[in-house]
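Open question from group meeting: does this chain pack into something compact, or does most of it stay loose? Before anyone orders reagents, we agreed to write out a predicted structure and look at it together. Recording both the input and the output here so the notebook holds the full record.
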Amino acid sequence: REEIEFYRGIVAPGDVQSGLRIHRFTLEEGSAVGEYHYDLVLTQLKRNDRYVTGVVDWKIAGLMVGEQGELALAGVTNPSVKQLKFRFRYFQDLAGKITLPEGFEPEKVTLSIQPGGKSKLPSVEQSFDWPQPGSR
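Structure tokens returned:
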């Protein structure tokens, strides 16, 4: 039922603006200390007659040894990835693993979707609270 609603929202989204959307973003603790698995689903609503390409930038805000700080995606991926690249027509699922440095206490993550090429789609930015430990 959930999958049917997902596909229906892509092909017949109803009374919503066309453009890129973050359909889902989840973070789950991994098996190692500071390790998290992410799952990001991007969708293109209404104007899905063409492929859309671009990048997703990350900023992870939190405390590093009591001081406010910020980490970019390149600082938490191995091998280092500066941005997540995408290319899709209807939707794309981007999943992977990040590892936070020891002593960093994350508070929130901000994702910025930047369409590339000749696309006239606007950028999208959305912030998510960091999940509390053991909140699976």
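Observations to bring back to the group:
The mean pLDDT is 86.
Strands lie at 19-29, 35-45, 52-64, 67-72, 84-88, 91-99, 104-115, 124-129.
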